[in-house]
Design goal:
The protein is α+β, with helices and mostly antiparallel strands. The chain has a single domain, classed as Jelly Rolls (Sandwich). 23% of the residues lie in helices and 20% in strands. The chain is built from 8 helices and 14 strands. Strands 1, 2, 3, 4, 5, 7, 11 and 14 form an 8-stranded antiparallel β-sheet that branches. The longest helix has 17 residues. The radius of gyration is 19 Å and the shape is globular. It starts with 48 loop residues before the first helix and ends in a 10-residue tail after the last helix. Bound molecules: 2-oxoglutaric acid and fe (ii) ion. Fe (ii) ion (FE2) binds next to loops.
C-alpha cells in the first residue's frame, strides 16, 4: 500500500508579489480574465467517449475513470488496504497537519479535470486586494505589530463552485459516496462533525493563478481543506505552511506575527504535482502559495468540508473572493462554532 507522505523543506523564502493597491485597505477590483495561450499541449477531452464508456461500465458512482482506485481504494472501505491507507494519512496529519496522496487522480482523469477547468476559466473572478491573514478589515485600535494589521498583496482568480455541474469530473469526485467518508476517516472526525461545505459558491472551486500571482499568508475559513493539483505553472507555486499555529480557542497572535514578520523556521514547504491530493488543516495552519513563474497557468481544485452542516463563507470574505454573495450567505452569516477571527 503506497502510503501518504508529506514532503517538506523548511525555511524557504517568499519572493515579491504583484502590487495593485497600496495602504492597509482591502480593495477588490474585478478585471476581465484574459485568455493566455496555454503553453502545455494537453488535449481537451471534456465529454469524451472514453470517459462516458468507462463510467457506464463501472456504474455512475464509480470513479475509476478519474481516481487511481487500485492505489487508493476509497470505494472499498471494508477492503484490506483501506485501514492502512487511513492509518498512514492520520500519521501524516498528526505529524504536520498535512497529508498528500501522490497520483490520486491518474493521467486520463487529469485530462478531464483540466478540460473542465479550462472551459470554466473565462468565468473566474479575478481579484486584487490588500489582505491580512484573516481576510478581515484593519483594526486601528490594535498595535501596529498585531497580525490583524499586517496586510499583503493578493491576486489570483477563483472559478466559483456554481461553474462545476453535478455530472462533471470535479463534482463527481466531491459528491462520490466514498469521498467524504474517506476524508473524514483520514481526519479522524466524527460523523456528526463533518459535512460538505454548505456554500454554493465555494464548496468545490478551482484556484487559477498566473505568473507573479500566488496567495499570501492566511488561515482558511473552513476547518479542513482538500486540494487537488490539476496543472502547475512552469515554476514557483510551492505550498508553505506553519502546522497547527493556532487552535480553536487560542489565536496565538505572537506566533502568527512571527511568521508574518519573516521567521520561517517552523514553516514546511510542499511541491505538489498534477493529480496529487492534499488534505490540510487550513483553519489552524497559517499557509501561503509562493508566486508563480512562467506563462502556464496553475489550476488547483479546492474541496471544502466543515464541522456544521449549515456553514458557509462570511459575507465580506465571499464578496472579496468571488465578487458576489448569494442570499444564502446573508442568511447564514455568523453560524460558527468557534469565535476565531474569520
Ligand atoms: O491554491 C492552493 O494550493 C491553496 C490556496 C489556498 O490556500 C486557499 O485558497 O485558501
Ligand atoms: Fe488557504
Amino acid at each position: 500500500m503506497p502510503g501518504a507522505a508529506c514532503v517538506f523543506f523548511p525555511g524557504s523564502a517568499f519572493a515579491g508579489h504583484f502590487r495593485k493597491e497600496s495602504g492597509a485597505q482591502m480593495v477588490d477590483c474585478l478585471v476581465s480574465v484574459f485568455d493566455l495561450s496555454e503553453m502545455d499541449q494537453t488535449r481537451a477531452v471534456a465529454g469524451s467517449e472514453s470517459a462516458a464508456t468507462s463510467q457506464e461500465k463501472e456504474g455512475a458512482t464509480m470513479l475509476h475513470d478519474l481516481v487511481d482506485l487500485e492505489r487508493y481504494p476509497i470505494d472499498r472501505p471494508d477492503g484490506a488496504g483501506y485501514g492502512q491507507m487511513i492509518a498512514d494519512l492520520r500519521q501524516s496529519l498528526a505529524e504536520d497537519g498535512c497529508a498528500v496522496l501522490r497520483g490520486f487522480v491518474h493521467a486520463e482523469g487529469l485530462e478531464q479535470l483540466l478540460a473542465e477547468a479550462r472551459a470554466a476559466a473565462p468565468r473566474a473572478y479575478r481579484s486584487f486586494s490588500r489582505t491580512n491573514a484573516y481576510f478581515s478589515t484593519d483594526n486601528p485600535s490594535l498595535p501596529p505589530g498585531h497580525p490583524v494589521r499586517h496586510f499583503f498583496d493578493r491576486s489570483n482568480a477563483f472559478i466559483p463552485a456554481d461553474n462545476f455541474p453535478g455530472g462533471g469530473p470535479l463534482r463527481r469526485i466531491y459528491d462520490d459516496p466514498g469521498f467524504l467518508p474517506f476524508i473524514r476517516e483520514a481526519l479522524d472526525e466524527p460523523e456528526n462533525r463533518f459535512f460538505r461545505y454548505d456554500d454554493p459558491l465555494a464548496d468545490v472551486i478551482v484556484n487559477m493563478a498566473e505568473e507573479g500571482e500566488g496567495f499570501p499568508w492566511h488561515f482558511d475559513t473552513n476547518n479542513h481543506t482538500v486540494t487537488l493539483a490539476i496543472q502547475n505553472a512552469q515554476s514557483g507555486g510551492a505550498f508553505e505552511y506553519s502546522p497547527m499555529l493556532r487552535t480553536s480557542d487560542d489565536e496565538n497572535t505572537v506566533g502568527v506575527a512571527r511568521v508574518l514578520d519573516g521567521d520561517l523556521s517552523g514553516v514546511h514547504r510542499l511541491e505538489l504535482e498534477p493529480g496529487d491530493l492534499q488534505i490540510f488543516r487550513g483553519r489552524y495552519s497559517l499557509h501561503r502559495v509562493a508566486p508563480l513563474r512562467g506563462p502556464r497557468r496553475r489550476f488547483v481544485a479546492i474541496f471544502s468540508f466543515a464541522e456544521r452542516p449549515d456553514m458557509c463563507g462570511g459575507v465580506e470574505r465571499t464578496r472579496q473572493l468571488y465578487g458576489r454573495v448569494l442570499p444564502h450567505h446573508l442568511e447564514r452569516a455568523g453560524l460558527r462554532d468557534d469565535a476565531l477571527m474569520d
